[in-house]
Design brief:
With 174 residues, the chain is mostly helical. It has helices at 7-29, 32-48, 59-99, 105-116, 119-130, 135-142, 146-173. It folds into two domains: 4-76, Orthogonal Bundle (Rna Polymerase Sigma Factor, Chain: A); 100-173, Orthogonal Bundle (Arc Repressor Mutant, subunit A), CATH 1.10.10.10. The termini are far apart.
């Protein structure tokens, strides 16, 4: 642990650098909530390693390196969870759809809404969520940027959600 007498020095340096650190994390992670979580973790590490900081050197540069490492750890962790979650979701969804009967409105609505998507959107959803192909690989195969593919997936998920809500509302009225 750092020397407690240096705490006020740490707080002063951190307060002046907070905006830059947070902006950097937000640019890396593209998600405000994720950036906040990683920022909090980075602040803990910054304090724990403050004895390694050389007074008079560039605190912001040092803090950004620590924040970058925390962001990379976060992204690796999220990627592992995402792969596990996708596999779990896929297995559960497939089992539930196989066992579902006509009274299972949500799954029936999802199935119908996916069927209503145009072929390109259905293929994109299948490749990403069904086959588990990484977005970067899909983007390269399609000659698009990863951000463009992410935007398409967000749009498709929104369309599916709207469709499911419409279908289930109609079922409720009957």
């Amino acid at each position: 642990m750092p020397d407690p007498s240096r705490y006020s020095e740490f707080v002063d340096l951190l307060q002046r650098a907070t905006g830059q650190i947070f902006a950097y994390l937000n640019a890396l992670l593209l998600n405000w909530n994720d950036a906040e979580d990683v920022f909090q973790d980075a602040c803990v590490v910054l304090w724990e390693k403050f004895d390694e900081f050389r007074p008079g050197s560039n605190f912001v540069a040092w803090a950004l390196r620590v924040a970058q490492h925390k962001a990379m750890d976060f992204q690796k962790s999220r990627a592992r969870r995402s792969v596990f979650w996708k596999a779990e979701l896929q297995d559960s969804l497939m089992a539930a759809m196989a066992e579902a009967d006509a009274t299972d409105e949500g799954l029936a609505a999802l199935s119908g809404c996916v069927a209503r998507l145009d072929e390109a959107d259905r293929n994109l959803i299948q490749r990403c969520y069904g086959d588990g192909v990484p977005v970067r690989q899909i983007a390269a195969q399609l000659g698009r940027s990863p951000q463009s593919v992410h935007n398409s997936l967000r749009r498709i998920r929104g369309m599916l959600l709207d469709c499911i809500e419409r279908v289930t509302r109609q079922e409720d009225r009957r």
